[in-house]
């Protein structure tokens, strides 16, 4: 433990600002991945254990598009759309066959997807680390806040994630499609009897969840090293986020993701050997005090 | 409501339909025809096969033999959502509102064009015919009373502009005064020449709202006639409907 160092950082504006911004971008990536996970679970009732794969694919698709075109906008679109398309194919051909089946079967299908996709990435891109580098537009001097420095890209990432979260929330709560999707989560047979193609909608929702993970991967690409298997730690952390925030709650995912991000950033200073433990401790605490999560519906 | 093609052909025809649940046969060659503007009651005791007939029509329990025709075109074998789009408005038993949606959002989920692209029923039109719902449009459907939920499920299906409305036991579990309100509603719809097929055990309710009746027993049609003829047929009433 390094509580003195932690106290010193919290007391120093520059260190505090730096750690908060680091925590926020970790949190924003987790928020995007976790809201996709939560959306899929909320509507389809399955846990997409392969969700980390789509984060990884988003990063690699973005990397490849950036290498090919030099455009970061195209890289983001490629990451989001690529992960979404693979997600729809995965749902149609594999996941949809194990709906309502044994949890172990679902786990097995997802685990197979993880192994296969990780290996495919290895074959196509190589097993070594890849760096995408900071896009031109963000290669500017960091913004100074209270003596701390925040890279321009961090601000962009936070804005993107919050914007996407807001659009998602509005889409689910205010649009007709969102209302249909919420109804689908509750009574799919009735939704079908009203003339709505529920299978198509399931595939669309699964794809949308994967788009969120892929977008996170693409946004992470300039600031993370890319490796096959990079999705695993993100998957575990987004599970923690979903548990803390409450399954199915987008605002809950946001709050929990920021909590986890800050825990990691400050934990790395105060408890360098126990950062992961802190996250699990936080999750345990929430589970004891509020089993349905911070903002989850209080049912059962 | 725009008129379906082929005015001479019944809106709905069920022909020689067998339905099985696993190995056990539930329906045995059901024949049924509902003409445009009719309110047909499908009567029968507990377990006679009324709900199963509806599920066969709606594509949820596809017939092993026989056919379901809508204005002469086969819908049997289609997925339930395609059957709904073809113009069959199925309101299942148990008042399946979306409880965490508002009344209006329930209607919005049900909204679609009819089979010929018509959008006769809008939320505003629904509120004119169901004034009770107009006052609760922003209330959560799960907080409505049983009767209000029943009206909402009917309204929600009407929002899809069907050619025929299938109501499975709309009076089930409701207080007599509420049953009367549902009856009034069905008569109002009948007055607007909505074609309706109602499954019921409550014979008195049906005698008050229907124009025609078909009686089934143990998965077979045993009687079919105009409602006045059934009212006068004590033998049938006694034997199959236990009054
Ligand atoms: N899913 C099912 N699997 C097997 N048998 C079923 C199933 N659903 C219904 N049955 C049987 O089919 C028969 C007809 O049931 P159905 O629900 O169609 O009757 P009903 O006329 O609607 O009765 P009620 O008035 O009680 O609603 C009954 O004997 C019932 O036990
Ligand atoms: Mg029934």
Task: Set out the fold topology.
The complex is a heterodimer of chains A (300) and B (243).
Chain A: H1 3-11, H2 13-44, H3 51-69, H4 72-93, H5 103-125, E1 143-145, E2 148-150, H6 152-174, H7 176-186, H8 188-193, H9 198-220, H10 231-245, H11 250-270, H12 275-289
Helix pairs in contact in A: 1-2, 1-11, 2-6, 2-9, 2-10, 2-11, 3-4, 3-5, 3-9, 3-10, 4-9, 6-7, 10-11, 10-12, 11-12
Chain B: E1 12-21, E2 24-34, E3 39-43, H1 50-58, E4 65-70, E5 73-74, H2 80-86, E6 88-91, H3 103-110, H4 123-129, H5 131-134, H6 146-158, E7 164-168, H7 176-191, E8 195-200, H8 203-209, E9 212-217, E10 220-226, H9 227-232, H10 234-241
Parallel strand pairs in B: 3-8, 3-9, 6-7, 7-8
Antiparallel strand pairs in B: 1-2, 1-4, 4-5, 9-10
The structure holds adenosine-5'-triphosphate and magnesium ion (MG).
Characterization of this structure:
The complex is a heterodimer of chains A (300) and B (243). With 300 residues, chain A is mostly helical. Chain A has one domain (3-289): ABC transporter involved in vitamin B12 uptake, BtuC (Orthogonal Bundle), CATH 1.10.3470. Chain A is built from twelve helices and two strands, in the order αααααββααααααα. In chain A, strands 1-2 form a two-stranded antiparallel sheet. Chain B is an alpha/beta fold and 243 residues long. The chains are: A mainly alpha (300), B alpha/beta (243). The A-B interface holds A 176, 179-180, 182-183, 186-187, 189-198 and B 58, 60, 79-81, 84-85, 90, 92, 96, 98-101, 105, 108-112, 156-157, 160. The complex binds adenosine-5'-triphosphate (ATP) and magnesium ion. Magnesium ion is lined by residues 50-51, 93, 168-169 of chain B. Chain A: It is a multi-pass membrane protein. Chain A: The chain crosses the membrane at residues 6-32, 39-66, 72-91, 103-125, 153-172, 200-219, 239-262, 269-289. Chain A: It holds the Pfam family BPD_transp_2.
